[in-house]
Amino acid sequence: MNASRYGRKSIADKLFLLGELSLLCLSSWLASTLTNINNTAVPLEIRLLNVVIFAAAVMLCALSVGLYDHKLREGSKGIVKRVVITLVFSAILLELIIFQLFSSIHISSLYLLWASLFAAASISGFRALCHYQDINRLSRRRVLILGAGERASIIERRMRRNVDRRDFEIMGYVRIEGDKDAAILPHRQLNVDYTNDLFKFVMDNEVDQLVIACDERRNKLPIEDLFKCKTRGVDIIEILDFIENETGQIAVNLIYPSWVIHSNGLMLNNGFKTSLGYVLNVVLAILLLAVTWPLMLLTALLIYLEDGRKTGASVFYKQLRVGIDGTPFYILKFRSMKPDAEKNGAQWASTNDNRVTRVGQFIRKYRIDELPQLLNVLKGEMGFVGPRPERPEFVVQLAKDIPYYNNRHNVKPGLTGWAQLKYPYGATAEDAQEKLKFDLYYIKHRSLTLDLVILIRTVEIVLFGRGR
């Protein structure tokens, strides 16, 4: 039996990353060989160093445009498009920054062109082959769900697409005594005598993971069989943890108080989020201001020309938001709506909001309107990464309607966050609840590494105009 353990790096992922890394190194080596075929002046160590730098730059840019997102929903054309964008970004990074700072390692611009062309062809072909051959089947876990009621039905609803189940295969659902009627299709339920034959079924069918998802567990679960399964290497996991691991969110509607107390994470246990975190945020804010001030100046001018000179309205917009520990502060943005947008009181913004100006539509799509919030970062009211701050008028109602909503205020709000990466644009109470699931996941797992991943992948949001 395959004793698969949750959380390990799958064989498929290792093979995929190794294959892609090898192709990038090969592309770089072929390009350096081609461009220096009659030139022996370039030392071997410089060529090898270029191989490493090229591969690292491409993989970093691939991460930034979402190519390493396991749940990426793109067809072959979309993948090729992202591969091309990745290589353009990496070429700009190398040519304008790395090779300018370290000119002694620069072979030639022609080398970079050939390396990018070779990489575009090989990476696109490799990804198409992996998709066609379904490489993930090499390490896909066999999962059995203990439960077929309301709680178990959440798995069916949230993980119904193939991309959601790329790392596992659900063998079926076992109805446990006390399960409520739910929308689990009859053909998905297994006829297993779980009180007597669960261990035998697990062994015979090489089950790797058991998910406890029954509605009523008191004196209902076969503890002895579960213990025997555990000692044979079968992973046993709660539905809350299963959904968290597979979707990157915490199912708020399934949380119970003891889980909050005993769950790993949710603790401020490192210096990064205190004094060091503030210093890093200030440094990043100053660097970003130094780079984007011409864009900010142009944006302010366009807003003024569109309606500011006629109405006298400011190009900026101050709005009260709720910060860490519920402390209110004024967020600063470029004005993207008409001056009288809220003459009837606070409203949720919508996808095709007729209150948004023409300039506003563009700067909202590419998040340019958020750039003045760098001043909020400098003041210490916000960080670069964290839950997006919400308006007090909405927070009061959302806290009444959504369990654990106020827990998102336990960390400093941010310019970007996990929810913005994982959830599309939304502006309703239902969307707020969905985003809370991702915000709680971030709060539980926050770390320097996760913050860096979110910052890098924010490029994808800006580039493709996703999320808010």
Search tags:
single chain; 468 residues; alpha/beta; Rossmann fold; 3 domains; four-stranded parallel beta sheet; two-stranded antiparallel ribbon; 8 strands; disordered N terminus
Describe the structure.
With 468 residues, the protein is an alpha/beta fold. The longest helix is centred in the middle third of the chain and has 37 residues, at 275-311. Residues 1-9 and 269-275 have low confidence and may be disordered. It has a 4-stranded parallel beta sheet with strand order 2-1-3-4. Strands 5-6 form a two-stranded antiparallel sheet. The protein has helices at 11-35, 44-64, 76-101, 109-133, 150-158, 194-204, 223-231, 239-247, 257-262, 275-311, 358-365, 374-378, 392-401, 418-422, 429-445, 448-464; strands at 141-146, 168-174, 209-212, 235-238, 316-322, 328-334, 383-385, 414-416. α2 (44-64) crosses α3. Helix content is 51%, strand content 9%. It has 3 domains: 11-135, no CATH class; 140-247, Rossmann fold (3-Layer(aba) Sandwich); 271-464, no CATH class.
Short summary of the structure?
With 468 residues, the protein is an alpha/beta fold. It has helices at residues 11-35, 44-64, 76-101, 109-133, 150-158, 194-204, 223-231, 239-247, 257-262, 275-311, 358-365, 374-378, 392-401, 418-422, 429-445, 448-464; strands spanning 141-146, 168-174, 209-212, 235-238, 316-322, 328-334, 383-385, 414-416. 51% of the residues lie in helices and 9% in strands.
